[in-house]
Amino acid sequence: MLFNIEINGRQVSAKKGETILSVINRIGIKVPTLCYLSNLSPAGACRMCVVEVEGLSHLVPACSHPVEEWMQIHTHSPRVLNARKALLELLLANHPDDCLYCDRNGSCELQALSDELQVRERKYIEKRRHIQIDKACQSIERDPAKCVLCGRCSKICTEVIGVSAIGSVGRGSNSRIGTTYNKGLNFNACVRCGQCIMICPTGALTERKSLYKVMEALATEDLYTVVQFSPTVPAAIAEEFGLKSNKDALNLVRAAFKKMGFRQSFDVSLAADLTIMEEAAALLDRVNSDEKFPMFTSCCPAWVKYLEVNKPHLLQHLSGAKSPQQIMGTVIKKYITSSAGLKPEKVFVVSVMPCTAKKAEPESDQPGDNGLQMLDAVITTRELFKMIRLMGIDFSNLEPEPADTAFSLASSAGRLFGVSGGHLEGLLRTIYYLSSGQELSPFKINELRGLKSKKEARLRINKQTYTVVAVNGLANAIELLGEIETGRADYKIVEVMACPFGCINGGGQKIGSDEKSLKAKMKALYDVDEEEMLKVAHKNPVLTDFYDKFLSKPNSGRNKDLLHQNRTKTPDA
Q1: I need a labelling partner for 330 at 20 to 30 A (CA). Which of 62, 71, 412, 489 fits?
Q2: Are 33 and 45 in contact (CB under 8 A)?
Q3: pTM of the full structure
Q4: What is the pLDDT along the chain (573 residues), one digit of tens a residue?
Q5: Beta partners for 245?
Q6: Cα angle vertex 435, ends 430, 441, to 5°?
Q7: Hey, which bits of 295-431 come out as E strands?
């Protein structure tokens, strides 16, 4: 049902059931919010979005109040502006005065609102809260003193990730955002995805930093420091520094790494090709041995952590292959360095990922010979941005630098891992070839592309139909698990990425990316797939040589020790 309402003296069409905020946003009026998250249930907690409705004695929160036909609304009247300023001043009453040292300085919504509403002094003074910083988690650091009780982290953890690792504790003036029994994030349901960081308006939630550990390694003369990077990194760098998202961006990123002092740089897409080969062989072994289906992908550590803690009986369905990051670290330390005459213990491997959960993988990885760690440091793309600026890298004065090693050769199938459905698309290309002896034509699988949270495809191979699904947003995966366990859904392969839309929106990416930005990152990966001649992992000559000289047949022998992980024994939560 459509009707007209008046907003700031203007007649506007509205629909029954809409909130005031949705109508305001649609006509291009900006109203400040702290607790509001698009597409999630409104909370009305922060009250920053209050508006004045003629006929009502009180101001109403625009994010949760429905429109009605009689309404005459004022979004920026003196009464509204004074109320918003007073609300903000109350929030700042016990907020720390450490903006200069805060990780979110310059990108803090509270700071931006203070400037917008012209708050220039501390009007109210409340006793400061001295709350211990939560450093229990390997990936995420939580500073409760900077929390403004907006509830965003709780909402996304519950509704999008589906684990409720963080939420409201206490009542009234004693209410706060905390964890179960106040034990810290590492001791509860947290899967370390970092989506809470992405939507926190202040510096209350940040990633655990490894930047200065990397800087120290680069300054240590007897360490041979190398870097591996996710296929999502060039597009993220291009967005942050205003570059074109094409092959030149990839080569500029390599040039930047060289300028920083890294001896070599490796594209993790090569390891993604290895993952495809191992998983394709594992799936066909399951088919031939009549094992239980579906097979779950294992490249998302947040998804793996969820299964280990909450569904250990389903670990038998999980692919045994390590994540591409882990595999690349193993390849570097066990093969590339030894072939070059370097001692593995003198090689320092840095991984640049769009993901905070990846920070926990070095600790969960099984050490190699003599306790050798395959990954020495993992930094997020946000940390890389800071490192680039800290070291004075100017992309306008850099010449693109091609790969300095054959181990950077990867198929475009491996590069598709950065987007939801991409892992599955690359995997199906190889499964089709190994099963039929022919290449899939066309390579592109449209059903697995786009920003939908659940994407299904059916592929006929020989006399079998492979029904597969790619799901992103862990809550959607948990719902799908319920369907699978009750027999309402039947799939051969299930690809899961905990973060909405996949690694392009990982917890270590740029904060504040909108749908337009996500589509641009997705397009950059698909453009590479269109332009690249090598589109399948099984045709990668580096992999062929690697299997011939160093490994055994995919999913067997030595590969089980190097590229796979025994997940039947679950670690401590």
Answers
A1: 412
A2: no
A3: 0.93
A4: 899 999 999 999 999 999 999 999 999 999 999 999 988 888 888 999 999 999 999 999 999 999 999 999 999 999 999 999 999 999 999 899 889 999 999 999 999 999 999 999 888 888 777 788 999 999 999 999 999 999 999 999 999 999 999 988 888 777 889 888 788 888 878 999 999 999 999 999 999 999 999 999 999 999 999 999 999 999 999 999 988 766 678 899 999 999 999 999 999 999 999 999 999 999 999 988 877 899 999 999 999 999 999 999 999 999 999 999 999 999 999 888 877 889 999 999 999 999 999 999 987 666 665 678 899 999 999 999 999 999 999 998 999 988 878 888 999 999 999 999 999 999 999 999 999 999 999 999 999 999 999 999 999 998 889 999 999 999 999 999 999 999 999 999 999 999 999 999 999 999 988 889 999 999 999 999 999 999 999 999 999 998 998 888 999 888 888 899 887 654 444
A5: none
A6: 55
A7: 295-296, 347-353, 377-380
Rounded to a whole number, what is the largest CA-CA distance in the chain? 81
**DSSP code string of 164-197:** --SEEES-GGG-EEE-GGG--GGGTT-----HHH
Residue among 508, 510, 511, 504 at smallest CA distance from 210? 508
Answer whether the bond into residue 442 is a cis peptide, omega within 30°. Answer: yes
Q: How far is CA 270 from CA 115, 324, 525, in A?
A: 47, 8, 15
* CA distances (Å), origin 312, targets 390, 395, 567: 43, 47, 9
Task: Count CB-CB contacts under 10 A for residue 354.
Answer: 29
Residue 158's φ and ψ, nearest 5 degrees, are -85, -50
| Contact between 206 and 197 (Cβ < 8 Å) | yes
Three-state helix/strand/coil letters over 220-244: CCCCEEEEEECCCHHHHHHHHHCCC
Q: In this structure, what token pair is assigned to residue 108?
A: 């803090």
Report the candidate in 566, 490, 569, 551 with the shortest Cα–Cα distance to residue 271: 551
Neighbours of 434 (CB within 10 A): 16
Pure H helices in 391-538: 412-415, 422-436, 474-485, 515-531
**Is there a contact between 249 and 521 (Cβ–Cβ < 8 Å)?**
no
Provide the 3-class DSSP secondary structure of residue 251: helix
- Six token digits for residue 236: 């993220």
Please answer whether residues 421 and 470 qualify as being in contact, where contact means their C-beta atoms are separated by less than 8 angstroms: yes
Give the closest residue to 156 by CA, choosing from 148, 168, 164.
164
| Six-digit token string for 179 | 């964890």
Evaluate the CA torsion angle 319, 375, 228, 501 in order and state its sign: positive
Helix, strand, coil percent content, the chain, rounded in steps of 5: 45, 15, 40
Which of 206, 107, 111, 199 has its CA nearest to residue 160? 199
